[in-house]
Amino acid sequence: MQSHKVFTPFEHKSLRLRNRIAMAPMTRRMVKDDGIPTKDVIEYYRQRAQGEVGLIISEGTPIDGLHACDTLTVPRFETLDQLEGWKKVVQAVHEEGGAFAPQIWHTGRFGADPIGPSNHQLPPRADGSERPPVKAMTEENFAQVTKAYAKAALSAKEIGCDTIEIHGAHGYLLDSFLSLSNNKRDDQYGGSWKNRMRFPLEVVRAIRQAVGEDYPIIYRFSQWQVDNYAEIKFHRPEELELWVKELVQAGVDILHASTYDALEPAFPDVSEETLSGWTRRLSGVPCIAVGKVCSNFTLRGAYGEEKDAVADPHPAMDLVEKGEADLLALGRTLIANPDWVKQVREGNWQDLKAFDKSMLKTLV
Ligand SMILES: Cc1cc2nc3c(=O)[nH]c(=O)nc-3n(C[C@H](O)[C@H](O)[C@H](O)COP(=O)(O)O)c2cc1C
Predict the structure, then answer these.
(1) Which atom number of ligand 1 is nearest to the Cα of residue 170?
(2) Is residue 237 part of a domain?
(3) Residue 154 lies inside a defined structural domain of this protein
(4) Of all residues in the chain, what percent carry a pLDDT higher than 90?
(5) Phi, psi angle pair for 304, to nearest 5°
(6) pLDDT confidence bin for 200, thresholds 50/70/90
């Protein structure tokens, strides 16, 4: 049995975790058009909680059926029936001693009826089909989306979720406002950093107001985005500092720094420190690190034909030991190994299965 800080409890506000391992949010597209989590969805999350994961973060779950969603096969977080389905997920995770956070999501520019900071046309999808044009958000859109986020967050609290994660990463709606390549507005939502941060911060404040002071809020952000893996939003630590301090000021409790590789230096010209390390130090709040734990491939490689091999998770786990992260999130390796925590704690990481993309075909 291995003693390592990742296997020790974590507490923040009302959030109590038995260890510092989180399941990273992963879209699986496995429900019917009604958007209700199915028995398999419940079982999929239960299995990871049974495997002693501390915090289960759900797949991105769209906050409305209007613009937030890209396909109908993603479980949504809006109607009473959908929330009833999620409540069963929460109960299953709690029965197994885990904690649960829905990742509340607005796909923005990538939606079926896409909205974003500015009018533009995304390139065709991988299958060659054209995408609908992205429409610049109107005042009415801002009000509707903010309200839908606040409602989803309050619903999460009401159905017993231990915390929520706001999906503010990867080029989806909130993130797209920060990006100069997506946001060409010349009103109070575009231009300077202050203006580009305005809408995501308004959403955070509306959520904080809806859920009250004590309910923990996680915010996930990233440099990269799904249509531009090389995107950089924070060129210098000062830009990151401005952003994370504003998020905390607006009501965020825990930051989730989404990277391909948890160990990669965030600003290599400055130091070897990881994005999670910088974020934690500059913001003063707990931070989740993620990326390539147990894997040799970047996320993009996961969709290729080659087969991955299991890599030693300890260098990433040591980020927690060294104080560069408070929690470590696992994506692909947790799809392959629902019992990851037990296996690694018992010193058997070499027996873990390597992830391969065929594992995405089924949930359980
Ligand atoms: C199948 C799949 C679906 C994903 N869906 C989401 C998602 O819904 N929301 C999100 O923030 N990140 C998503 N990601 C990114 C993961 O949360 C994670 O950051 C990434 O896989 C890197 O971690 P890993 O190397 O441990 O897999 C997804 C990744 C995969 C492999």
Answers:
(1) 11
(2) yes
(3) yes
(4) 91
(5) -80, -170
(6) very high
Name the residue of 23, 26, 44 to mutate for ligand 1: max ligand atoms within 8 A of Cβ: 26
pLDDT per position as a tens digit, 289-324: 999 999 988 777 666 656 778 999 999 999 999 999
CATH for 43? 3.20.20.70
In angstroms, what is the span from residue 24 Cα to ligand 1's centroid?
6
Give 99's contacts (C-beta < 8 A, 6+ positions apart): 15, 16, 17, 54, 55, 56, 93, 162, 163
pLDDT at 305: 59
- On the question of pLDDT at 183 being above 80, the answer is yes
Does the CB atom of residue 59 touch ligand 1 within 6 A?
yes
Domain range for 132 is: 9-14+27-286
Q: What is the distance between the alpha carbons of residues 204 and 164, in angstroms, rounded to a whole number?
A: 11
- Where helices occur in 237-294 by DSSP H, the ranges are 237-250, 275-283
Judge whether residue 148 has pLDDT over 90: yes
Question: In angstroms, what is the span from residue 186 Cα to ligand 1's centroid?
Answer: 33
Nearest ligand 1 atom to the CA of 60 is: 8
Nearest by Cα to 309 from 290, 296, 298: 296
Q: Is residue 354 part of a domain?
A: no
Active-site entry in 172, 189, 219, 260? 172
The total domain count for the chain is 1
Q: What is the atom index within ligand 1 of the atom nearest the CA of 290?
A: 23
Q: For the segment 32-76, what is each residue's pLDDT rounded down to a tens digit?
A: 999 999 999 999 999 999 999 999 999 999 999 999 999 999 999
- Whole-prediction pTM: 0.98
Structure tokens of 147? Answer: 């309200």
Please confirm, yes or no, whether 172 is among the known catalytic residues.
yes
Residue 324 lies in a domain: no
Residue 178: closest CA among 156, 193, 163, 159? 193
Per-chain mean pLDDT for the chain:
96
State if residue 290 touches ligand 1 by the CB under 6 angstroms criterion. Answer: yes
Q: Is the CB of 277 under 6 A from ligand 1?
A: no
